[in-house]
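**Protein fold record**
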Amino acid sequence: MVYSKEKLDSIPVHFILCTERTGSSLLSLMLNLHPQILSPSEEPFALYFWKKYRNKKLWSERDVLKYVDQFFLLAEKNTDLYFSKREVFLESLLSHRSILNYQRLVKLTYLHFIDTKDKSDIAVIVDKQIKYFFYLKQLKVIFPDARYIVLSRDVRDNIVSKQNRSLNWNQHPIFLAGLWRDSYANVALLHTNEHCKIQYEQFVRDTVNTLTTV
C-alpha cells in the first residue's frame, strides 16, 4: 500500500509503558482487533536509528537498502512471525523514497508489522516496547506529541508471575521489586495530560470500560 505524506503525518504514535507480566500482550492484542489501531510487536528500532537518521531528508536507493538491512540485523525477535518479507518491505520504502523523513520512515516500518491485518484504515499506532520505560526522555524528543498508557500490576503478583516464568537474570524478590519501583518511577517524567494509568487487575475485571478509557 502506498501512503501519502499527509496520511503518514496524520497517524500519531503512542506508547504502552509497563514491566513484563502486566497484561501488555493482552492489551495489545485487543487493540489490534480495532480496525483503526495498529499495535506492533516489540522492536526498539525507532530509538536505535534516531541519531543516525533523524536529520536525513534525501534518501537514495542505497540508503533505503542499508536501512532495511540494518533493521533486520538489529531485530530482536523472529521477524518471520510478525513482519513483512524483506523484499516487500524494501519495495514499500523505495516507493515512498521521495517523501521520507525520520517520522515517516518509522511509521512506514510500523505499518509492516502484522501483515495479516488490513492497514487501509489505520489511524493510530500504539507501541508496547517495554524497554522504552527507561528511555522516556529520548522518546519524548522523537515523538513530542505522543501519549502514554501506563499499565501496572500489584507488585507482589508481578514478582510471582516473573518468577514463575523465570524472567530476568535475578529472581530474588528484592531485585524484582526494585526493578518494578525503578520502572514506574519514570512516570514522573510525564505530564498529567500525557498519560493515563491502567491497573491490570481492573483491566481483567472490567475489560470493556478499561478499553473505553484507553
Q: What stands out?
A: The first strand starts at residue 13 and ends at 17. The two ends are 28 Å apart (CA to CA).
